[in-house]
Amino acid sequence: MTVENLKPRLALRVGVTGHRQGRLDEADTGAIRSQIQNVLSRTAAVCENLARTNTCYDDQPPLLYFVSPVADGTDAMAAEVALELGYKLLVPLPFSAAKVAQSFPDATRPRFDRLIARADSVLELVPHASDGQAEDEAYLEAGLATLRHADVMISVWDGEAARGLGGTEMIVEAARDDGVPVVWIPLKTPDDVVILDGADRTPYSDDGYEALLDALLVLQTDGQASPDAADRFSSFLQEEKGGGWTPSFHSFVDKVLVGKWGKSRQHKPSAADNSLPHKDTEKTGAAAMVDHRYQHADEAAVRYGNVYRSSYYSNYFLSAAAVFLALLEVGLGMGKTLWISLELAVIVVILMTTVRGRKGRWHEKWLDYRQLTESLRRYVSVFAAGGALPFAHDEGHDRQRSGETDWTRWYFRATVRELGMTGASLTPAFKRDLIQEVIDKEIRPQIDYHTRNESNKHHLGHRLHKLGEYAFYGTLAVCVGYLLLVVLSKQEWAHWAYELKKAVKGWVTVLTGFLPAFGAALFGIRVQGELGAIAKRSASMASELRQTEAALQRLLEQDDPDVGDMRRLIVRATSIALSENAGWRSVYQYKPLDLPG
After folding, report:
1. pTM confidence score
2. For residue 36, is it within any domain?
3. Fewer CB within 10 Å, N side or C side of the chain?
């Protein structure tokens, strides 16, 4: 798995929303077409320059997508311009292509047919809408699907309120709410182009537009190109496949204490296992690309998770061992130099492990790679449903809550952009197959994992707590026993007590020093692992996932599952899983590998 294979190809998706042909006839269509061409040409030039100069991307030319429902008017005109400039056309349709074609006048139907024939991907959202309201909702869904798959929107709009469901104004406002920048070409004054970016509204300029694209495509921290984030991404690319031997001391200790020797690792099928029903070409293309990156991230996450956990387990146990070795000469009455030498060796091992862990960023890499792994794997189901994750465009989201860091967010979104859009007809059979796959391959394995994890973490925490208590009770017993021997040794009839006191005196010192240190080590492991918090979180996750499964099962009972409800529930299931990752990230991010104390 080479570095170049893991680097994303620079990709950008430009969507369009605008008025139908009847409204365009009132405007200067030549000027509008020219402005669309200018924006798309500028987009291509910026992307080509970045693809050549930005080392975070591979060496291929940029992958430029244009997303358009190709309705007669703005959509079709813009799609033609994009194809002329070398863009790949992605077409989300409200109905089946045949049904949409029937809505075109005879004069313009050949234009629609030509665009569909040249499309790289066609997504039929509501193939069998049968009444007026359903058809209006389908048109809205097509507009929102365009938005979901766009990084930048071009809008040809008169600035007035929408005249119906799914109108241009509704899509523009939805884009601004989602943080998707809009290049607005006013219908009546097409030379006065404006960039709408959230609440901001600025006149269009090439420099301003280039800065906007840089913000989307360049790996940045707080709005600036980030060498540090780029270094972390480069480090990820250089991770060796397999990575050699990975210590699992923590796993061994956990299994000894919990008494369960079966597999405890979370169910993690490959991304390609989330196949896209009836679309083998999509599975081997989109899902295989995601799977390639997923496998690399997953292997590295497992490796660094094992190293980090095993290291803090060993540090705590070795610190107790160092105390034992320091006191051993008192118990044995000999070998002081040997025991001190061994204690020194143990301390050196603790220090070297901690320093290596800090310099190697084991803790940080584990958290980053795990977040990336889960984002990549779970996106495949959302992609198959023609959807997007809720934070896909929200640059202002709370990163601490989401668990993303700059480079993982950038890499995930670069992968999403590269995927483009699934090509499928969301027929009832397709939707039922997809829902069943999400239940079988995502939700149920996650419920099983969290149920098992809650039990394991609860028992592990309980047993570490009990063992720690036993260590302190043992110390108390040794102290009380020795004091009894002291009292008894003063009695003439208890000469044996005097001899026993002399014999065990050194070992009393050893035990009263070592047992509290051992108990503190067990307590440290329990606190560092936040076992109680993790158990409670797993219980909460299992409950939320069961509710989502029940909602999906109810959806399966419908003859034709509602596409909006399906997508919402699939995104909900994905968001639950990602929030779980964000939850344990918030628990562990302030617990780097450190010296016991």
Report:
1. 0.85
2. yes
3. C
